[in-house]
């Protein structure tokens, strides 16, 4: 159930950002993580690929791709909810990649999602499109 919910959530985030789901991956093991390859580049890191990383402890991080043996170079972290709405993640990415990014999204506080059952339920809710009733 957790893997299915994570895949749905990451697909919703990729769709909100405007990237193909083929550039995403998820893993549910000791940790719960996701990866989204970004097609845009940062003005501060021209010529370097960017990625969006998610884990159940810290939420979303935008980082510069590095060599496999090196840790990613963090550009910014999305504060607040560990499982934010996909539209908020898209605004975060767009703002961080703009030339005027102020760093206001970054947070250094450690956050952790609830137990795996509660995490799956939260991911699943965020993955569903919002249906507006008239």
Automatic annotation (TrEMBL):
Segments forming domain DUF6292? 9-95
The record, for InterPro entries, names: DUF6292
Identification of the protein by name: DUF6292 family protein
Q: Name the source organism.
A: Amycolatopsis rhabdoformis
């Amino acid at each position: 159930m957790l893997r299915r919910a994570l895949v749905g959530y990451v697909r919703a985030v990729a769709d909100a950002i405007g990237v193909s789901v083929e550039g995403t991956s998820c893993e549910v093991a000791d940790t719960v993580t996701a990866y989204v390859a970004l097609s845009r580049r940062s003005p501060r890191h021209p010529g370097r690929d960017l990625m969006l990383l998610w884990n159940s402890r810290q939420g979303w991080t935008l980082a510069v791709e590095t060599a496999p043996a090196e840790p990613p170079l963090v550009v910014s972290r999305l504060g607040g909810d560990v499982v934010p709405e996909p539209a908020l993640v898209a605004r975060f990415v767009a703002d961080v990649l703009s030339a005027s990014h102020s760093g206001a999204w970054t947070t250094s506080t450690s956050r952790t999602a609830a137990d795996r059952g509660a995490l799956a339920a939260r991911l699943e809710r965020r993955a569903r499109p919002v249906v507006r009733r008239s």
